[in-house]
Amino acid sequence: MFINKLAERLRELRQEKCISIKELSAKTGISPTAISQWENNKRVANIDSIILLANYFGVSVGYIVGVED
């Protein structure tokens, strides 16, 4: 469940900021391949990456993984 929600929320947050996967990669230091795999439910993000993404987007870790709205 959380993997699907992370994929959904990550894509939504990225699109709300109008940035590409490549731009998000450049701003966070996370590889574009990893970001793409997370958005497509092909790989699970580690906690460090989830925290980095939550901080970048200004949301809580709970929000980005789908345990809070």
Features:
about 70 residues, mainly alpha, 434 Repressor (Amino-terminal Domain), 5 helices
The helix/strand order is: HHHHH
The CATH first-level class comes to: Mainly Alpha
Main beta sheet, described? Answer: none
User: What is the tally of beta strands?
Assistant: 0
**CATH topology descriptor:** 434 Repressor (Amino-terminal Domain)
Quaternary structure of the protein:
single chain
Give the distance, in angstroms, between the N- and C-terminal Cα atoms.
15 Å
Tell me the number of structural domains: 1
- The CATH homologous superfamily corresponds to lambda repressor-like DNA-binding domains
Written description of the protein model:
The protein has a single domain, classed as Orthogonal Bundle (434 Repressor (Amino-terminal Domain)), CATH 1.10.260.40. It has 69 residues and is mostly helical. The chain is 68% helix and 0% strand. The protein is globular. The two termini are 15 Å apart. It has helices at 2-16, 21-28, 32-39, 47-57, 61-65.
Give the helices and strands, then pairings:
Layout: H1 2-16, H2 21-28, H3 32-39, H4 47-57, H5 61-65
Summarize the structure.
This protein has a single domain (2-65), classed as 434 Repressor (Amino-terminal Domain) (Orthogonal Bundle), CATH 1.10.260.40. 68% of the residues lie in helices and 0% in strands. It is built from five helices and no strands.
